[in-house]
Amino acid sequence: MSLSLAYPRVTTVSDFFALLKPRVMSLVILTGLAGIVVAPGHVHPLTAFTALLCIAVAAGASGCLNMAYDSDIDVLMARTATRPIPMGYVAREDALAFGWTLSVAAVATMGLFVNFLAAGLLAFTVFFYVVVYTLWLKRRTPQNIVIGGLSGALPPAIGWASVTGDLSLAPLLLVAIIFMWTPPHFWALSLWRASDYARAGIPMLPVVKGKAHTRFQILLYTLVLVPLGVAPAFLNIGGPLYLVVSTGLGLWFLWEAVATWRERDEIKEPAAHRLFGVSLLYVFVPFSALIAEKLIGLAPLSLSSLAL
What we know:
This protein has 16 helices and no strands. The chain has helices spanning about 5, 15-20, 20-40, 45-70, 70-75, 90-115, 115-135, 145-155, 155-165, 170-190, 195-200, 205-210, 210-230, 240-260, 270-295, 305.
C-alpha cells in the first residue's frame, strides 16, 4: 500500500487560500485601491483599509464559490484540474460554507464600518459573479464572459463609493475600461484552451462561433478599449504618467490584437499567447500609474490644461 493511500492528505490553510484565486484577487485589490486613491475628499486610513480588505475578501469568496459550483467541470479541464476541489484537497461542501461565510462577513463589515452604498455594490458584485455568471451564464451562452465581466469591473466604483458615498462619471469610466478589457483578455486565453472548454461543455466563443469569429471580436473590443483606456487622462482623473502608460500599452495591445486577428496557427496560437500576456499588463500598469500619480502629488490632466 502506498503512503498516499495509507495516510490521506490533510487539508491545509494553503488549500483554502488557493480557493480564493489569489492572482485574481491581486487585480481586484489594485483596481479597488485605485478607486479609493483617485476619489475626491479625505477618508480615514483605517476606513480605507477596511474597505480594501472587504473588497479583497469578497473577491476571494466569489472565486471560492465559483470553484465550488464549477468543480464538476473543473476536473475536465487541464487548466483547472489541479484546483483544490478536483484534487480532493477540499470538500465541495466546505468550500461552499467557506465562500458564503466570507461573502456575508465582507458585505456586513463594509456596511457597518464604511457605508451602505459601498456595501450594496459589493453585495451586487458577489451576487453577479456567483449567481448570474457562474450559475446562469457560464454554461448557457458564449456571451458569458461579456456580461459576467461586470462583476470583475466594479471594484474601482466600490473603492470610490467607500470614500465619497456616491458615484460619478469618473469611477464608471474606470469600470468601463475593465469591462471592455475582460472579453479580449479571456477570449485570447480561450483560443488555445478551446478543446478544454469543448470537453467541459462550456460554450465559450471559439467553441460556439469558431476561432476566426473570436479573433474578429477581440479586435473589435480592442478598438473600443484603446481610446477608452486613454480617456481618464482627459477627464481630470489621470495625469501625464497615466497618459503615457495607457497610450503605450494601448497601442501594444492593439498591435497584438491585429496579430491575433491575422493568426493562422490554430494549434499553438502564438499571437493569442502574446496578447494574453499584454492584457495582463494592460490593467495592472495603468491603474498602478493612477495610484502612483496620486501618491507623489502629480496633478491630473484636463482638457483645459492641454489646450493651454
